[in-house]
Every structure is written in C-alpha cells, then in structure tokens.
Design brief:
alpha/beta, two-stranded antiparallel ribbon
Length: 204
C-alpha cells in the first residue's frame, strides 16, 4: 500500500503569495496527474497562528531570512504566511482535492516552534498523527511531493525514513524556496544519502 503526501500547496507558497516558491505553480499539474496512482492521499497544510515565532514580524529589529535561536533550534525567520483561516492558507484553486481516501494534516499550530515535517514539529514536541494514520491504513511506501524541496518536503522525507517507510520524492513535483541557488539539488542529494529514492512522475 502506498500513500502520496502532498505538502503545502497553499496560496502563500505560490505565485502572488507572501512566501512564493519560484515557479511553484508548475508542479500543480504534475501532482494532479499522479493522484490516481495512490491508495491514499495526504494533503498537508501549514496552519500558523498570527503570533508564530517563525515570522520575522514577531521579532523586533529582525528581517526576513535572518536566523535566530528558537528554544534551542536554529530558526529561519519567514514572512507572515499560511495564517489560520486566511486566503493564504487555503489550497490553491488548481489543485485537485480528491474526496476518496483523502486525509488532511495540519502543522505549525504551536506559536513557539516551527513544523517543517508533516510528521512532527521541529523539536518533536507535537505529533501530527500522520504516522498513526499511515500505520492504520497499512501503508509501507510514502511518496512525497509539494513545497518546498529544501524545507517541508525534505524534513517530511527525513522523518519518513526514520520511521522506516520506503520513501520516495517525486522530483518533478517539488520546487525549492532557494534561499541559496542550489538548494533543490543539495536537498535531493542529502535525501538520497539517507536512503530516499528520487523518482519522476513518468515512472509511477
């Protein structure tokens, strides 16, 4: 049994959004095309309160992309994004939401710790329930796509490997924020080195 984890295809991460991933909209048709291949679909959402400590606006004299210590973890400060119950937090209108065997995971709800992975927050204080769901559905293979390769997709894959899932990244269905120009390639290489398999949608 295999699941597709569709990470954060939300308005704020796409064209016109407050934290738009370059060319992020290009992966939506790829994701839509591969949905029927999977036994279950997991759609994740960043779901931040307005006072989230990962927002630069909540730190005096700090700027977007500055790095701070947040309770012992190195934290990039982001523009305000995916605030609960706002347009920016909604799924993009072009993303197909399949009603059958479809589940939703919300992350980043604790204002004091960020949550890149779909499984846990960055300090592993909060469990999203994704692992329990996958076990209940007898899933042993997870395929991950969405935004972004260098953050939420990467850390979801790292946790999936640590939880002993056969883990795949659909390379043409993910894009990087690219704070550094080669973050996409570096992230995929890092994931390959820990056992994640990199595939393309045409091979599904």
């Amino acid at each position: 049994m295999k699941a597709l984890i569709i990470v954060d295809i939300q308005n704020d991460f796409l064209k016109g959004g407050s934290l738009a991933v370059p060319d992020g909209n290009a992966i939506i048709p790829v994701i839509n095309k591969i949905l029927p291949v999977f036994d279950i679909l997991i759609y994740t959402k960043d779901w931040h309160p307005a006072n989230h400590k990962s927002f630069a606006s909540n730190h005096k004299e700090k700027n977007v992309y500055d790095v701070v210590d947040l309770k012992g973890i190195s934290q990039v400060l982001w523009p305000d994004h995916c605030i609960q119950n706002t347009f920016g937090a909604e799924f993009h209108k072009d993303l197909i939401i399949s009603g059958k065997n479809t589940y939703y995971i919300f992350k980043g709800t604790d204002p004091n710790v960020d949550s890149y992975s779909a499984f846990f927050d960055n300090k592993k204080i909060h469990d999203t329930g994704l692992n329990k769901l996958l076990k209940e559905k007898n899933i042993d293979e997870v395929y991950i796509c969405g935004l972004s390769t260098d953050y939420c997709v990467k850390y979801t894959a790292i946790d999936a490997i640590e939880l002993n899932y056969n883990t795949y990244i659909v390379a043409d269905a993910t894009k990087a924020v690219n704070i550094n120009p080669d973050d996409y390639e570096k992230s995929l290489e890092e994931l390959k080195n820990i056992g994640v398999k990199i595939i393309f949608s045409k091979n599904l």
